[in-house]
C-alpha cells in the first residue's frame, strides 16, 4: 500500500515523525487524516467511548419542546422505571425474546392474522427504552383517567391495541406505578357489546350477562393480556387531552412485560392511538430513539415542530400488505458498507418485503443480503481480532488493548433514492468485556420479511406520515 509521507522542514522532527507514521501503519493502528483504501468512509472512535455510559444524558430536543413526550430505555439510567432496580435481562434473554417477537410478526404475515388484539397541532412525548415482550424497547409516560394517573407504557408500532393493567387483577405482573383502578376515575366507561369499537378487527369477545366487550391480545412469546375493552380520558400533554379513548383494561396479564404499566399501540389499525387521534394529528407522528445506554429521545404527535430539522427529512413511500395491514412496510433497495454498494439484487429485498418496527431490537435481513453485508464487513475489519459469536451475532471482535478502532460506515438505501446512515451503535453491539458484534442478523429463510429494528433506528428522526403515505428519515433527531 502506498503511503503519503508528510514533509517537515526540520530533519530531526521529520525523521522522528516519519518513523512513528510508518510503525503505526505496520501495526494497523488508525491514523487520523490518513487516506484509506478508495477513500472509504469509516467511523474512527475511541474504544472507551463505546462502553455504555452509566449516567443519563437528556435530549436537548426534549428540553426545547415543552409538549414532547420523553422516550427512554427501560433499563437505562434515564428511565424512572429503573429506580426500582429491576434486574436487566441477559444478552441471551434479550436476543431470545427478540427472536420470539420476530417469529411472531413473520407468522402473523404468513397466516393473514394481523389481530393483535395516537392539522397543525402537536404533542411530543419523551420516549425511553423499556421492556416489551421481553425485549429492550422504549417507553413513554402519559396520563389516563380523571383525575389523571401517570402511567409508563412501552410504545409499539407493531401493535394496534393500547392496554394497561387494571384492578381488580386476576393476575398482574409487577409494575413501577400503582395499578390503575377504574373505580377511582370519573370518566372510565366499559364498552358495550354492540358498540362499533367492539366489532373492530380484534380478538374480542363479550360478557353477555353484563353486555361488556372483552379483548384479548396474545404475543409470540406466550405473553398475553385479557380484560375489558373500555373508554377513558387520555392525556398526552396538558393541552392534548382525548376523552373516550378506547383501550384495554387488562385483568389477566402474564408474560415478559415487567415494569411498564402496559403498551401503547401505534400501528395502522382502527384501535391504534394513531387512528383514534387522526382528527387532530392527521395520522402523523415521529420519534427519535435514543441510544440504548444513556440518553433520552422524543415521541411527537402532529406535524407542527415534530422534527428537529424538517427540511432535512428524506422520504420513502409507505407500503401496505393485505396480510398485515397494521404494519408499516418500506422498500429497501440496497446497503452500502464503507461507501460501497453491496452486490445484492433488489429482488432479494422486494420479494418478501421489509417492515419498520419499534419493538424489534436487531434488524433482520434476508439471508443473501446478510451474507453480503457480513462478508464485506469482515474483509474491512481484518486488522482486528475476531472472537466467538454471541447469541444471534456471528461476527464479533475483541478490542482489548486498543485505544481507537476504525469501523466501516453502513447505510441503507430506500425507495425514493434516499440513503440513511446507521449510527455507530447500530453497527456495533456491545456484548461485554471489550467485545462488540456486528449488530445485524439474517432471517431463517429468504421468503420471510425483513425487519428494520430499533437499534438501527437510534438517533434518527423517524417520521410517519401515514395519511400522506410516506416515511421520513433525518439525522440528529435526538439533539
Automatic annotation (TrEMBL):
Record keywords, A-Z: Aspartyl protease, Disulfide bond, Hydrolase, Protease, Signal
Name of the molecule in the record: Peptidase A1 domain-containing protein
Gene Ontology process terms (BP): proteolysis
Active site: 156, 357
InterPro entries in the cross-refs: Aspartic_peptidase_A1, Aspartic_peptidase_AS, CND41-like, PEPTIDASE_A1, Peptidase_aspartic_dom_sf, TAXi_C, TAXi_N
Keyword Hydrolase: yes
Annotated signal peptide: 1-28
Pfam families: TAXi_C, TAXi_N
Single Gene Ontology MF annotation: aspartic-type endopeptidase activity
Membrane-spanning residues: none
Superkingdom field: Eukaryota
Domain Peptidase A1: 138-474
Similarity annotation: Belongs to the peptidase A1 family.
Keyword Disulfide bond: yes
